[in-house]
Amino acid sequence: MTAAVIAATGLYTPPNSLSNAELVETFNAYVARFNATNAAAIEAGEVAALTPSSVEFIEKASGIKARYVVDKSGLVDPEIMRPNIPERSNDEISVLAEMAVEAAKQAIARWGKPASEIDAVICAASNMQRAYPAMAIEVQQALGIAGFAFDMNVACSSATFGIKTAADFVASGSARAVLMVNPEICSGHLNFRDRDSHFIFGDVATAVIVEAADQAPKSGENAGWDILGTRLKTQFSNNIRNNFGFLNRAAPDGIGAIDKLFVQEGRKVFREVVPMVADMIVEHANDLGVDPTGLKRLWLHQANINMNEMIGRKVLGRDPAPGENVIILDEFANTSSAGSIIAFHRANDDFATGETGLICSFGAGYSAGTVFVRKR
């Protein structure tokens, strides 16, 4: 069996940043108009009045201050409240693939090897732009990569599931190197008229190259990270759900039924996912002979600052010191599968050879994945 390493990562960030203040202004304008239009029914008790939001509420609930989005114009218009993303012709590269390609190009440049040495592409993300052809195959074609490609969806855990799959391909000899991309246009599946969730997500794309250890430099800047172990877990739950698919159609206003967008029972998710993930991390670390309290860094899925902080305390056995439990929620919001990879990409330059960290994701399904890595 061939050992696998994380050789390089890449990040593509859309040019538009949307602040909480801008989001709240739009949402509250919608609320005021709704309550005015339905004033009589609200007075009669037939319709519930909507409650305005605030910047303070969002930051306390999530730790989010802003998010990058593919389109901002539709999100700051109370009449629209969804992204304006023009449909492209079949002869143009799709939006999702274009984002993935940009992240992949950065990863390949950091890797320092030609794309021709990659034998497989995995597109691991929460929401694919289409059912087929696979987004991964389009990315493969755009980058001139031979071999094979396919899509996989394990919601917010897609990246760790993708790294595990890539490492298994390398271990079995099926591929010398695998490109795993996580393009996420989460603004496209979010209900911007829901006070409890309209602020959660942002758009971004990340990329990870996994290659055989015997082909990677043993030391130096490009030595990469030994994958010490990977573990996956799923447990069915309806507490995070999105029912959109080919069996349903959008309503005339283009928004569709509420359950065709992102919905969640946030408090239930918090109570059930935090202990599941913390226990999984500790058990996996112990099985690998790794002291979880001695991890230099946690690169967790960026779901909610309160979840991340509690998981960090449970794993480390104390309050994490600044920088130990990486938080990028304030700038990016929740970017689903890409969140843990953004954290890893942004905060690993200070590692010395032999130091160990954890990439971990968790989300709908429920699903969770752990990837322990050690600097080569």
Structural commentary:
32% of the residues lie in helices and 22% in strands. The protein has a domain at 225-375: Peroxisomal Thiolase, Chain A, domain 1 (3-Layer(aba) Sandwich), CATH 3.40.47. The protein is built from ten helices and 13 strands. It is an alpha+beta fold. It has a nine-stranded mixed sheet with strand order 5-4-6-7-1-8-13-12-11, with helices on both faces. A two-stranded antiparallel ribbon has the order 2-3. Helix 5 links the parallel strand 4 (120-124) and strand 5. Helix 7 (266-288) runs parallel beside helix 8. It has helices at 20-37, 39-43, 55-62, 95-111, 135-143, 158-172, 266-288, 305-316, 329-332, 339-346; strands at 4-12, 16-19, 66-69, 120-124, 148-152, 177-185, 203-212, 225-234, 240-241, 263-264, 297-300, 356-363, 367-375.
Concise account of the structure shown:
This protein is an alpha+beta fold. It has helices at 20-37, 39-43, 55-62, 95-111, 135-143, 158-172, 266-288, 305-316, 329-332, 339-346, and strands at residues 4-12, 16-19, 66-69, 120-124, 148-152, 177-185, 203-212, 225-234, 240-241, 263-264, 297-300, 356-363, 367-375. The protein has a domain at 225-375: Thiolase/Chalcone synthase (Peroxisomal Thiolase, Chain A, domain 1, 3-Layer(aba) Sandwich).
Task: Supply database-style keywords.
10 helices; Peroxisomal Thiolase, Chain A, domain 1; 376 residues; alpha+beta; single chain; nine-stranded mixed sheet; two-stranded antiparallel sheet
The major beta sheet can be summarized as:
9 strands, mixed
The gyration radius over C-alpha positions equals: 21 Å
The number of distinct helices, counting runs of at least 4 residues, comes to 10
Order of helices and strands: EEHHHEHEHEHEEEEEHEHHHEE
Q: Would you state the CATH class of the domain at 225-375?
A: Alpha Beta
Question: What is the overall shape?
Answer: globular
- In the sheet with the most strands, the strands line up as 5-4-6-7-1-8-13-12-11
Strand-pairing-aware structural class? alpha+beta
Considering the protein shown, what is the CATH homologous superfamily of the domain at 225-375? Thiolase/Chalcone synthase
- Mean pLDDT rating: 93
What's the architecture of the domain at 225-375, going by CATH?
A: 3-Layer(aba) Sandwich
